[in-house]
Amino acid sequence: LQLKSKEDENIRLKNKNAISLEREKTDRTITYSFGVLIVFLLGILFLLMRNIKIKDKFNQELQQKNKDIENQKAIIDFQREALEGLNKSKNKLFSILSHDLKTPINSIYQILELHQQGEMTLEFQEEIFEQLHKQVEGTSKMLNNLLFWASTQMDGIVVNFQNINLTEVTTIAIDSLYMEAFKKKITIKHSDKENRFIHADIGQVRIIVQNILANAIKFTPIEGRIEVFYSQDENYKKLHILDFGEGMNESVVNDIINYDKRMTSELGTAMEEGTGLGLLLVKQFLVNNKGKMDVKSEKGKGTEFIISFLKVK
């Protein structure tokens, strides 16, 4: 019985040991599996972190490229605007030159044509060629001034403020338009005894005065008169150009003062044609030079243009 009991106990111990070994084996399997799972999860986490870093780097590179593209686009837009501005300036310069030279050149051409056709008496020739010399001299000065001014504006319209003699500029403009006034027997009275200095761009002031005078001659009737005189206030010196033509109604005056685009040109008293560009240039250049323009007119009683320029400080 004791032997039997020992055998049963041995069997139980063997079974217990077998169970213990199986449990240890299972625990090791679970431990290894858990370790493998952790390693696998760590690998996935590493790959995710790596992908996130790669994605962030790619996004940063993409954002930098987008910024570079935006900067390049801004540079291209700036260059395009600059080129458009230069093109507009070039067109404006050509318009100014053609507009301001058209009137005196036409006058000279008409006189030479009359001379070629033999329609001028010797007495009239002496008088007309004396005045033609004056016209050519004034036109030559105006052309030299315009070309010099245009050469300074090739990189775009700029304003070069300086102290200039408004009386002298007005005198040259009147001389260059002498034949236009002579053809219509218009008398121009100019109060030019005193030099009046203003602070402005001399090229643009010449164009302003030239266009206002040409406009006055255009709308002054034959054997009419034009008065050119000056005044001043605390901040401005003013040029008055008064014609005694037919005048304008209130709506036309408002259009001249308020519109900032080319106006339809009306025929002059001798059927002179225009481009509508003159007054637009005058208004733009007055803004550039911090000046201003006022127009007083009444139907049947003439028109007065008052051009104000900054005084010399």
Would you mind describing this structure in some detail?
The protein is built from seven helices and seven strands, in the order ααβααββαββααββ. By secondary structure, the chain is α+β, with helices and mostly antiparallel strands. Strands 2-4-5-7-6 form a five-stranded mixed β-sheet. The protein has a two-stranded antiparallel ribbon with strand order 1-3. Strand 4 (225-232) and strand 5 form a beta hairpin. Helix 2 (122-152) packs antiparallel against helix 5 (202-218). The longest helix has 115 residues, at 2-116. The N and C termini lie far apart (140 Å). The mean pLDDT is 79.
The main β sheet shows up as: 5 strands, mixed
Sequence of secondary-structure elements: HHEHHEEHEEHHEE
Q: What oligomeric state best describes the polypeptide chains here? A: single chain
Please list the strands of the largest sheet in the order they lie side by side: 2-4-5-7-6
Q: Which consecutive residue ranges, at least 5 long each, have pLDDT under 50? A: none
* Overall SS class: alpha+beta
- Mean pLDDT equals 79
- Considering DSSP H and I runs of 4 or more, what fraction of the residues is helical? 55-70%
The tally of strands reads 7
Strand content: 5-15%
Number of helices: 7
> How many angstroms separate the termini?
140 Å
Rg result: 45 Å
